[in-house]
Amino acid sequence: MNQVDIDQKCQDFLLELYKQTKGDPAVQMSMYDIGAALGMERDAASRVAEELLGWQLAEIRTLSGGIGISQDGIAEAQKLSGSLTAAEEIGFKLGKATVIDEDGRRAIEEITLDLKQRTGSLALEFDILNEFIADLKTIDAQLSSPNPKAAILRQCFQSLKETAEKAGALESAAKIKMLIDD
Questions:
Q1: Which among 24, 115, 10 is positioned nearest to 61, based on CA atoms?
Q2: Rg (Cα) of the chain, in Å, rounded?
Q3: CA-to-CA distance for 101 and 106, rounded, in angstroms?
């Protein structure tokens, strides 16, 4: 991404878009709703959104004001807000362990909760959706074990990462990659 110098209004709008989309580029929001959350009139919201579109920090989705956050927009919003990188967010890697400890269990539960919440917005074909859900159920079953097996979890997360990448859920895929990469 090229270095951009956006004013405070644009920064606030971008951060609100990031917050309302939860950093998911597949989510569509109304530019007017984003502006309203910041106390902007429709015309002002439209002008600010147009600036973000010009810098490719947001993407137009509908002619009636639907926009989404771009990958560059996610990176800029994280930079502006001082958000943690995916590695810092997770704070845990599967590594070479054979079983997962309690800290690992909590980290994995957070990641799978996020994936479950995003499942509906992934627009997956029926068979792929069933596979995605089966992987999540397998992870849940392992987490209910007194000694969750890292190898099983690693394979499930590898499958989930590939599906997330195909569906365009790049933030989720990045979090999973940080979890399973040694």
A1: 24
A2: 18
A3: 9
Give residue 100's Cα distance to chain centre.
24
**pLDDT for res 67:** 96
Residue 150 pLDDT: 92
Residue type, position 107, single letter: A
Distance of CA 141 to the CA centre of its chain: 24
C-alpha–C-alpha distance, residues 171 and 152, integer Å? 23
Kindly list the structural domains of the chain, giving each domain's residue range(s) and its CATH number in brackets, ordered by start: 8-81 (1.10.10.10), 86-180 (no CATH)
Kindly state the average pLDDT of the residues 137-162.
Answer: 93
Within 55-169, residue ranges assigned H as helices are 71-81, 86-90, 102-118, 126-143, 150-167
User: In which element (H, E) is residue 46 found?
Assistant: helix 42-54
108 close to 68: Cβ distance less than 8 angstroms: no
Tell me the mean pLDDT in the region 126-149.
Answer: 92
